[in-house]
Amino acid sequence: MTTAPGTVLVVEDEESIADVLAIALRYHRFEVMVAGSVREALALAERTRPDAALLDVMLPDGDGRALGKQLRAERPDLALVFLTARDSPAEVVGALGFGDDYITKPFNIDEVVARITAVLRRTRPADVLPQRPLLRYGDLELDETTYSVHRAGRSVELTPTEYALLRFLVRNGGRIVPKEQLLRHVWQYEHTPPESTVVETYISYLRRKLDALGPPVITTRRGVGYGLA
């Protein structure tokens, strides 16, 4: 018997959407818990330990973003994926910078399953991790065993997705990495709309955190991609 790939807490107040999400995720062997409100979600999360939370931003008794922050504060290893309205993707992603991914409505259910799978693949560590050598570039130091980051000896708090992005840039040294490669290797996206701003958004998050501790370290080759100075 194969084990479930993970447990997902689905928080969505529209029953029809919640049902479709739960059915699709269970079909792909995920364990699924469903809540229709902030209160129900907090109660479920307290009793169980989901690996990921799929959160609608608009909930009847609160804001999904505030719920995500509360869940992440209690469970730093919890992967967060938000369901958002298709109004202004760049602004929405900017507001959800502490999450690991976002999906706009209306969505393709296969894409939702693929995104959850990809997020868990990069955020959930193996049960037993071997000791790994430190990754270094300039004054950056990444510990592959503890998933911690330091710059010039000072700790940098990153989300799992920010860590995965920085790790890929460090592993590629001073080379410029095309945006398409970042989407494929960090987000595991095979087909992404050309207007997607997820890479640009997470690069801005990294810059804000890293540049606070030293000179700018991430370079941009306009129209191509990103690298380390």
From TrEMBL:
Residues 132-229 form the OmpR/PhoB-type domain. Keywords: DNA-binding, Phosphoprotein. Residues 132-229 bind DNA. The modification 4-aspartylphosphate is found at D56. It comes from the Bacteria. The keyword Phosphoprotein applies. PROSITE patterns: OMPR_PHOB (PS51755), RESPONSE_REGULATORY (PS50110). The keyword Phosphoprotein applies. Residues 7-120 form the Response regulatory domain. Pfam families: Response_reg, Trans_reg_C. This is Response regulator transcription factor. It comes from Streptomyces justiciae.
